[in-house]
């Protein structure tokens, strides 16, 4: 029987020669040794929430879902050692029991820790970087079965490469996280005209711990969301209220509207205007991870780009205008993060605005996404590594000042390209022989 794997969105699939789910380091090392002997390339899969072909392989596909334990927690230092295959949904409540939390999270929590950090997954907050910046150390197994501990103390080159490594250096088996004391957020959602937001954008970003908004191509309204720390006790909403807001309305009702739009695309403009005006004020006071995240049940595909923050308003207007030319019933999402120093972080070295466009399942996405990508290109955009884009190594190299330093680290840790696939060959280029010096163990 042929192995098969499909991603969450249902639009990326592969038939690997072997699909393995190791339970420990010994089993993982044995799988890597077998892959080398049989000449297979190796990719690692998390929860399948990448929208592109980053995980696909016809060789060995590794599922790390069995490596899912919290290994050690130090409340005093805020450091937690965690196996790489744990999902954020499983990790967050366990950290909360220790009185610890991520300072920032994205809006879904189904990704694995390794998958989220390796692709540069982020939340929103003008003073806060992406999730990979919370890594204190990374444990990586190389193709020959050696385990290497990478950190800032062990050497900056591999450390800055590994934090957003797209699985190109080896198998991440564990991470040590640098966390903060658990906190309560007040989340406030309310509709505001898009132009009102854009006319005073910096104050919205800078006066809130976390600010973001959604907008529709055919509506003048935006649904803004502000999350701020408060010294209040958590006040979880009743489970029926949660179900109605997050499942019935945000998922089932939205899915039904998207199905109508897929059948009758001419209805998209009035449906979007009606949906935008149906937004209402909503407030939530709860543990941070419960406010940050919401369930996503309706299926779609996505493109997201990181652009310099100073171009935010102009790029948002252009993307909104571009989206009006295409049939997509779904909203555009806009968020902001601080810069960081990971070599391949989309937010590396600059304050960043992220703009995401979506297309509902079963609807043509490529013409829409290519038109949006042309806009992002004009603003020095860098694609989210786990979402759809049409870039190559040739088009990306000039956008990352530390590209060659990442390439040197990659050659050092995976000189034979064992952890490559068609996606990495396209976006990073094939591993090639050459002299390289890397200040790292191993």
Description:
The chain has 14 helices and 20 strands. The chain is an alpha+beta fold and 442 residues long. It folds into 2 domains: 109 residues, 2-Layer Sandwich (Uridine Diphospho-n-acetylenolpyruvylglucosamine Reductase, domain 3), CATH 3.30.465; 204 residues, FAD-linked oxidases, C-terminal domain (Vanillyl-alcohol Oxidase, Chain A, domain 3), CATH 3.40.462. The strands form 5 sheets. Strands 16-13-15-14-18-19-17-20 form an 8-stranded antiparallel sheet, sandwiched between helices. Strand 1 and strand 2 form a beta hairpin. Helix 4 packs across helix 13 and helix 10 runs antiparallel to helix 11. The longest helix is centred in the middle third of the chain and has 25 residues.
List keywords for this structure.
eight-stranded antiparallel beta sheet, 14 helices, 442 residues, Vanillyl-alcohol Oxidase, Chain A, domain 3, 2 domains, Uridine Diphospho-n-acetylenolpyruvylglucosamine Reductase, domain 3, alpha+beta
In short:
The protein is α+β, with helices and mostly antiparallel strands and 442 residues long.
List the helices and strands and how they pair.
Elements: E1 5-6, E2 13-14, E3 18-20, H1 25-38, E4 42-45, E5 60-63, E6 70-74, E7 79-83, H2 88-97, E8 100-101, H3 113-118, E9 135-141, E10 147-151, H4 156-162, E11 171-178, E12 180-181, E13 184-193, H5 194-199, H6 201-206, E14 210-215, E15 221-229, H7 239-263, H8 268-278, E16 282-287, H9 288-292, E17 300-308, H10 312-323, E18 332-337, E19 352-360, H11 366-378, E20 382-383, H12 393-396, H13 403-413, H14 422-427
Parallel strand pairs: 3-5, 4-5
Antiparallel strand pairs: 1-2, 6-7, 7-11, 8-12, 9-10, 9-11, 13-15, 13-16, 14-15, 14-18, 17-19, 17-20, 18-19
Helix pairs in contact: 4-13, 10-11
């Amino acid at each position: 029987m042929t192995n098969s794997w499909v991603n969450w969105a249902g639009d990326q699939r592969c038939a690997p020669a072997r699909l393995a789910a190791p339970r420990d380091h010994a089993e993982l090392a044995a799988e890597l040794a077998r892959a080398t002997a049989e000449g297979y390339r190796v990719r690692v899969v998390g929860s399948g929430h990448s929208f592109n072909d980053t995980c696909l392989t016809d060789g060995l596909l590794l599922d790390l879902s069995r490596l899912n334990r919290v290994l050690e927690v130090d409340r005093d230092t805020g450091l937690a050692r965690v196996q790489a295959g744990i999902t954020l949904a499983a990790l967050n409540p366990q950290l909360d029991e220790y009185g610890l939390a991520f300072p920032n999270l994205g809006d879904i929590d189904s990704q694995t820790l390794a998958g989220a950090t390796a692709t540069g997954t982020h939340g929103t907050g003008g003073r806060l970087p992406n999730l990979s910046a919370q890594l204190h150390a990374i444990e990586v197994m190389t193709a020959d079965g050696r385990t290497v501990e990478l950190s800032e103390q062990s050497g900056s080159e591999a450390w800055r490469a590994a934090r957003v490594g797209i699985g190109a250096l080896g198998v991440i088996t564990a991470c040590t996280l640098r966390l903060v004391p658990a906190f309560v957020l007040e989340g406030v959602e309310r509709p505001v005209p898009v132009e009102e937001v854009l006319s005073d954008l910096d104050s919205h970003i800078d006066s809130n711990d976390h600010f973001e908004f959604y907008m529709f191509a055919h509506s003048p309204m935006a649904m803004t969301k502000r999350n701020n720390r408060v010294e209040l006790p958590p006040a979880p909403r009743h489970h029926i209220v949660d179900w109605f807001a997050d499942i019935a309305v945000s998922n089932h009702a939205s899915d039904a509207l998207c199905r109508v739009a897929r059948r009758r695309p001419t209805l998209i403009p009035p449906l979007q205007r009606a949906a935008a005006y149906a937004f209402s004020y909503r407030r939530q006071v709860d543990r941070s991870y419960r406010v940050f995240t919401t369930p996503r049940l309706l299926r779609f595909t996505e493109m997201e780009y990181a652009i310099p923050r100073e171009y935010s308003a102009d790029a948002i207007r252009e993307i909104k205008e571009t989206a009006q030319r295409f049939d997509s019933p779904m909203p555009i999402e806009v968020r902001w993060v601080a810069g960081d120093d990971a070599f391949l972080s989309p937010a590396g070295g600059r304050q960043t605005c992220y703009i995401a466009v979506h297309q509902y399942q079963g609807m043509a996405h490529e013409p829409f996404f290519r038109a949006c990508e042309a806009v992002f290109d004009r603003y020095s955009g860098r694609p989210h590594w786990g979402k759809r884009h049409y870039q190559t190594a040739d088009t990306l190299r000039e956008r990352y000042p530390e590209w060659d330093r990442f390439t040197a680290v990659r050659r050092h840790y995976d000189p034979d390209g064992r952890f490559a696939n068609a996606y990495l060959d396209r976006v990073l280029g094939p591993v090639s022989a050459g002299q390289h010096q890397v200040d790292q163990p191993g």
